[in-house]
Amino acid sequence: MPNGEYLRYVALGDSQTEGLGDGDDTVGLRGFADRLAEHLAALDPGLRYANLAVRGRVAEQVRAEQLEPALALRPDLATVVSGVNDLLRPRFDASAVAGHMEEMFAALTAAGAHVVTLTFPDVGKIVPLARPIRSRVFDLNTRIRAAAARHGVAVAETGRAAIATDPRLWSADRLHASPLGHERIAAAVAEAIQLPDSDDAWTLPLPPRRVLTGRQAAAAELRWAAAFLGPWLGRRLRGRSSGAGRTAKRPQLLPVSAPPGCSATGGRPAGA
Question: Which residues have C-beta within 8 Å of that of residue 101, sequence separation ≥ 6?
Fold first, then answer.
């Protein structure tokens, strides 16, 4: 669309697109997709926006559960961000994950949507304990770029920007972006689709921060493991997803000013 004249924006994905780390289930989640929608609405108040993302979903589930509803909304812009939950699974298959992503790219672009995705930062620099899966991230990013190129999909290269691994862009659990992180992601996507007033300022570094001593860093890792890694592993062992029973927070195209509560469940667990 010329000059960023989008009228129907649909976001597909998992917790990052849902907005975890930027608000909460009490006050509401914002996230990069909401922030991007706000940018688009500033350019054209006629914009309608839907967010189909649900936390905990792997790429196969995003394709199976969200692609058809997204196509039914006839978006002229769609963001497709998925794969992090796959990266954390013991039996990770980069080819299969990228395949699900490519199916979504193909279907949405064939339907006339301008599609944008993003790459993932080096998790080993965010979570030291995750260094063993760094190669998975690099492999998946390469495959996402290749699939995107085959279908004319824009790529926000958050995986290559040094700022993406700054701890201040991540929430306390280190799995979800902080409000500042979501703001930078939204700006990266805006630049990728060349929206007016967008540029590469999102890549600029933050002011220097205090460097922890070795002992302080080790203590911080222990606190993080107890507060977040332990509960996460517990859910995996029980076979329970953080998104169990949840639905999309914004399943219909609505004006950006309309609250997500206009939907039937507002993203809360069914029956809650």
Answer: 59, 63, 80, 82, 83, 117, 143, 144, 147
